[in-house]
Amino acid sequence: MKQTTISTLIFITCLTLLWIFFNRGQDNLLFYVLDLPYFVLLNGLLFSIGLRDISQGIRYGTKSSVMLTLLFPLVLILLFYAYYWAHGQPTGRGANLLLPYLIVFPVLALYHRKTNYKTVTWSDIIILLLFLWPITLIDLSGNSNLPIDGVHFDSVYRMIIMLVAVYAFVVVRRLPEVGFTVDASGRKLWTTIWVWALYIGMVWLIGTVFGLVEFRGWNSGEGIQAEAVAIRFFKIFLHTALFEELFFRGLLQNLLSRKIRQSAEPITFWIVGFMVMMVLSLMVGAIMGGSLFWLPVTIAALVFVGAYLLSLSFTGYRHHYLALAIVSIFFGLVHFHAGSVAFVGLAILAGWAYGYVYWKTRNVLYAALIHALVNLSPMLLGIEIL
Which candidate in 83, 321, 368, 379 could, as Cys together with 311 as Cys, close a disulfide (CB 3.0–4.6 Å)? Predict the structure, then answer.
């Protein structure tokens, strides 16, 4: 048995035991006959479908027919509605009716793709954005948390969306190096830790100089409880970080860097990318307003200039630095919903840290790990972004 397979089995087992422990004392029968099997099944699929042998096996067994290719997403649709129905959630109301389209769309679009899988086309990126945009905007009616009553790490909806994304791009589209696998590596873990520490140091420095960060301390009466921190970590890691890192790093950054590398005129990407990102940064800053409206575009410009200077020194990695800059800025700007210009600016820097870890580890889980550590840092360090 391969090391990655063993690591995956250990990871899923530990995750399941922790989930059961945090939900100890459950007296709801559905928790044991429905929620627990769903947790094991969905996490088992989620963390194993990206394994090379499994993804290749599924591809070879389904590629001969579009109906066979659609079998997996159709099963996921049935699993979602069955979970909703068993818990008394509305299945035929509002945005819930769009779920079959959201799940089937990327699979069908990539199945009918005619170009060689090694060549990245604009249609690949457009399909990803058309898939990503609605799933971030649509709020389903009801509750799909797993479990609905108790401590949940993630929701059935988000897990199924991630499963479809990995299935569509890794199995059907055959996109290399998405890195959605459990890869136990001390070297990759060390890369994640030192980049996280460096980022926190930069945030503290910038925040102190410009008054963006305030030390609030901890509530001495409550303290920091280990179990509460652990639950918070796993919620961030599995619900927020893993989801965002799969789409922004494993798919978008991956596709964009390959597209730039294959381009006959990469300088066009630098010019157009810089102009588009500067305009968007200015727009976001102006719309959000306040005395720090200049912060997003300033940080975006520094990130772009830094990426360009690095690309001059490491010419073989120009496509990586450019893709890293564009996706980092885009990642930060979409966090305008947080309502803080300072948060958007620091999110751009965080996007660079996450993207760098993904690039160096070729693994979404390590990018999600640093993402979770960054999000947890205010709680651990007693700081607040103003």
Answer: 321
Q: Looking at residue 4, what DSSP letter applies? A: H
Burial of 240 (0-12, 13-18, 19+ CB in 10 A): middle
Q: Are residues 15 and 135 in the same domain?
A: yes
Specify whether 218 is located in the same domain as 354.
Answer: yes
Query: In sequence order, what are the residues at sequence separation of 6 or more whose Cβ sits closer than 8 angstroms to the Cβ of residue 108?
Result: 66, 70
CB atoms within 10 A of CB 119: 10
Domain count, the chain: 2
- 178, part of any domain: no
147: DSSP letter: S
* Last residue of one domain, picked from the residues 150, 172, 194: 172
Contacts of 303 (CB under 8 A, 6+ apart): 325, 328, 329, 348, 349, 352
Claim to verify: residue 9 and residue 34 sit in the same structural domain: yes
Torsion angle of C-alpha atoms 165, 112, 327, 55, degrees rounded to 10: 40
pLDDT of 1 reads: 58
Q: Are residues 163 and 310 in the same domain?
A: no
CA distance 347 to 299: 10
Helix axes 266-288, 318-333, angle to 10 degrees: 20
The residues near 118 (Cβ < 8 Å, ≥ 6 apart) are 176
Query: How far is residue 348's CA from residue 334's CA, in Å, rounded to a whole number?
Result: 10
> Based on the domain organization, do 150 and 276 belong to the same domain?
no
Q: Map tokens 């997996």 to a residue.
A: 72
Cβ atoms within 10 Å of 366's Cβ, excluding its own: 25
The domain containing residue 353 runs over which residues? Answer: 186-385
Give the pLDDT confidence of 64-78 residue by residue, as tens digits.
889 999 999 999 999
Q: Is residue 256 part of a domain?
A: yes
How many angstroms separate the CA atoms of 110 and 127, rounded?
8
Identify the pLDDT of residue 219: 59
Residue 357 has pLDDT above 80, yes or no: yes
Could you tell me the sign of the dihedral formed by the alpha carbons of 17, 22, 28, 30, in that order?
negative
Residues 202 and 135 in one domain: no
